[in-house]
Amino acid sequence: MTEEKLRALLDSMSLEEKVGQMVQVTGAFLEEDAVITGPAADAGLELSDCRLAGSILGIAGADRLKRIQERYMEEHPHHIPLLMMADVIHGYRTVFPIPLALGASFQPELVEKAMGMAAEEAASAGLHVTFSPMTDLVRDPRWGRVLESFGESPWLDSRMAEAYVRGYQGADGDLSRPGRMSACDKHFVGYGAPVAGREYNHAELSEHTVREFHLPPKIAAIKAGTACVMPAFQSLNGEPCTASEKIVRKLLRDELGFEGVTISDWSAVGELVAQGAAADTREAAKLAIEAGIDIDMMSVCYARELKGLVESGEVEERLVDEAVWRILTLKNRLGLFEDPFHGSGTEAEKKTVLCQEHRDFARKMVAESVILLKNEDSVLPLSREKKTAFIGPYVDSTDTCGSWAIFQNREDTVTLRRGVAEGGYGENALFCHGCDVLENTRVLGFGVEEVFGQREDRDELVKQALKAAEEADAVVMALGEHTLQSGEAASRGDITLPAQQMELLRQVSRVNSNVITVVYSGRPLDLREVSACSKAVLAVFLPGTMGGAGIADVLFGAASPGGRVSMSFPWSAAQIPVYHNDYSTGRPYDPAGAEQKFVSRYLDMPNSPLYPFGYGLTYGSFRYSSVTLSAETMKAGEVLTAAVTVTNEGTAAAKETVQLYLHDEKATTVRPRRELKGVKCLYLQPGESGEAVFRITEEMLKIWDRDMNFLAEPGTFTVYIGSDSRTENGAGFRYEG
Ligand code: NOJ
């Protein structure tokens, strides 16, 4: 539709219709036989509030959404199509590894391709907008939603943010093409830093920290063209984001230039009352629209209050018009006025959903994202000629996609046992359950509750496992936390493995010295004891539909493990937050030096995490040359190149993830000890060498100075290039401005 026609449409809409566009409810409330129950009913939502809602969320399926769309459009006074939204976070039916694992791939181009596939599947099933990517930088693994983040580096998170947006929206951003979806960058801003890692808690971050660490991935998503942004649930420095003109209208819109649609988080507008920011739903609606929230997701505030607020003159109608214009513009960009189904349909679904190409790529992404944390005596890769016992609750588990894979079908998931068998690795493999994932506990999910008791055959299972371990040459322990122990509303204070799994590991390690532990988790766990009991440790996070297949490929050496730590694995939860880009102190501690007192350290544990950012082993063995720089000085506007030669001195072909870090030696504000600024992947055969060449631009040197200017300060910089954030392989240059 032309802009002129769209404008005419807006002008012809009643106030009630316009407010409707700003309301979002769950899809089920617009189905023929809808009844409102549960928390929405408790919050007072009625079917009449939903009648004119401009968008729905949470359901999918081409036929189902088509029926809703047809009925809705027929009844709508201007026959305006609905927007169909849902959380498609790391895949629709073909579920890719969780975003934290995708971040660990350090390969945005692969992630872009994966999200293109996710969009194709979801769009074929009738969805138009996904609430993704979550670009919240994270430092606290107690927070359950770290699984949805890409990690602790602003640079890496930014590259992943762009990859996600381009994957969903296409490199040209033409949303009208079938198979494309609108992205929704979330959560603006600071949601990744809830105090004490407790879900929904407020965030306290200085402006400097927000700008230096938390905003860059958001800016990257905006620059990549994300069509929507979701302001965060929580308060930042005392202001609920949903009600903050400073955060939404001034920072997001005026300063960062975001022109798309903003959508509140689930019931966040209504929650302003519980937060103590609004006296009632009326004030909450007023605060939210004034802050700049276009769509109210699942609260009664806009549906009930906005019309009255405008009629009484308390809210200017102009604010409603601006919001509705943005919503209609998005519908138009998606081409919904021409095709309200956006190319979806059962035929398209059949062609794309879980197709071989997507499944093969998901399998590759598993290998690219699992992190080999330890591999003593090169116990991995396994030999298929030797006897291997696979033990543990994750051997046969199909619950490996994580709590955000809301459209997954567990039957599609390839278990580890199946991956081993179907990969042709299983001639000498035997499998035992060992123990359940949890014992004597209860976990809650979205409308699900799982209760774990103590099994009667518990001792028998352990006995079988120990017998298998005794007889085998090597043991693969498939252990992990439960999928409902990570994700939204799943903060944990203790981030070790569940007790009975740990006990089984201890016992197995006493009878077999070749233990390889495969750890399934939604977060970096405290793996200290796991590591002590194992010769090898492979972190696989929640690997998705093709998990078992990709993990088997890595265990048996058909693929080299490709992942690197994108969020530090703490030595102990007591160190949290522990991350690579912390600031230099005036009293640095040198662990290699003599015993020191008045320095920045713990008396009872190391400062460093167990596995630091960037770290990850492969089946190759890489030697780095020293860093060569194209010049020793750099003037404003110039570009330097930094290069290393890397040689694979091992016996297997592998990918090396070459990382470039910068350190600003002296500045007006204290600087991180290391900042990742570039990654190059080299695929090298045994004996082969390759060169990694990086460009260093002035932009990469910029910092927020003490007066909040973003600029490059003249002075000395060190460039480090190596295989993880601890590298000392560096060279210096002077930036002269
Ligand atoms: C709450 C989550 O915080 C948000 O990320 C998600 O998109 C919405 N629920 C909708 O499911």
UniProtKB/TrEMBL annotation:
Q: Give UniProt keywords alphabetically.
A: Glycosidase, Hydrolase, Signal
Q: What GO annotations for molecular function exist for this entry?
A: beta-glucosidase activity
Alphabetical list of InterPro entries matching this protein = Cellulose_Degrad_GH3, Fn3-like, GH, Glyco_hydro_3_AS, Glyco_hydro_3_C, Glyco_hydro_3_C_sf, Glyco_hydro_3_N, Glyco_hydro_3_N_sf
Reaction(s) catalyzed by this protein?
A: Hydrolysis of terminal, non-reducing beta-D-glucosyl residues with release of beta-D-glucose
EC number(s): the record gives 3.2.1.21
| Coiled-coil parts of chain | none
> Signal: is it a keyword of this entry?
yes
- What Pfam families would the database entry show? Fn3-like, Glyco_hydro_3, Glyco_hydro_3_C
> Is Zinc a UniProt keyword of this protein?
no
| UniProt xrefs under SMART domains | Fn3_like
Residue intervals of the Fibronectin type III-like domain: 656-725
GO BP terms: namely: glucan catabolic process
Q: Which domain of life is it from?
A: Bacteria
Q: Its family?
A: Belongs to the glycosyl hydrolase 3 family.
Descriptive protein name: beta-glucosidase
Q: What is the lineage of its organism?
A: Bacteria, Bacillati, Bacillota, Clostridia, Lachnospirales
